[in-house]
Amino acid sequence: MFELIQKLIHEDFDNFKVALTHSSYLNENSTIKDLESNERLEYLGDSVISYVVSEYLYKHYPSLPEGDLSKIRSEVVNQKSLSNYSKDLQLGRYIILGKGEEMNNGRNKISTLCNLFESVIGYISISIGLHETSNYLVDLFKDQIGDIYNSKSYFDSKSLLQEKLQELGEELPVYKSQQLENGSFLIKLFINDKKISIGKGRKKIDAEKMAAKEALEIYSKKL
């Protein structure tokens, strides 16, 4: 996929740049004619990614019940995971930001990188079609999906953390939430009044699970 994105940047940039244009740039340059942010493509890409992962799981893991399929999908399709793919593809180098967002380290924000990945996938799906886009995404995701399945990490991280803490004789976790300006949630996880981890997600429960997963990794090393 890296080669495809580089081709779009170097050979089709005038059209592709809409997938790279953050709303902050639009807000600061509202007088530029026909300027459009990547938010509509982000919406499309989010749906494409979710569909492709869902179809792949359905076809390749026929023995798994619906609940487990959904859990694995949520391990792949979340802000942190998609932002990592954005980093791997070096998309942050090309995002078009407003000056304020640039100064606020917007190029490295997890939410921004996640949204950027989705908008790029949205553009690609229109450019080359859903079938070819699906092939690219499967190649990108299949190793992660296999690792998640084999490690059983898709089991509820909040429940697993609670079991681990009880095993260690520790206090149960406290989750403190904060809703961010973009509507997503930031969760801080405390144990014995000490902040252990944080999680971010579009949904509060996803952010809690991310924080619990990180804390679980920390406490698993104590055995």
Notes on the structure:
There is one protein chain. The chain has 223 residues and is mainly alpha-helical. It folds into two domains: 1-151, Ribonuclease iii, N-terminal Endonuclease Domain, Chain A (Orthogonal Bundle); 157-221, Double Stranded RNA Binding Domain. 62% of the residues lie in helices and 9% in strands. The chain has a three-stranded antiparallel sheet with strand order 1-2-3. Helix 4 (39-60) packs across helix 5 and helix 4 (39-60) crosses helix 9 (130-151). The radius of gyration is 19 Å and the shape is globular.
In short:
With 223 residues, this protein is mostly helical. It contains eleven helices and three strands; from the N terminus they run H-H-H-H-H-H-H-H-H-H-E-E-E-H.
Number of strands: 3
Kindly, what is the distance between the CA atoms of the first and last residues, rounded to a whole number of angstroms?
40 Å
Spatial order of the strands in the main sheet?
1-2-3
Name the poorly predicted regions.
none
Q: Summarize the biggest pleated sheet.
A: 3 strands, antiparallel
- Give the helix tally: 11
**What is the mean pLDDT?**
91
Rounded Rg: 19 Å
Q: Helix coverage percent of residues? A: 55-70%
User: Into how many domains do the coordinates divide?
Assistant: 2
Under CATH, the topology of the largest domain is which? Ribonuclease iii, N-terminal Endonuclease Domain, Chain A
**So, the CATH homologous superfamily of the largest domain?**
Ribonuclease III domain
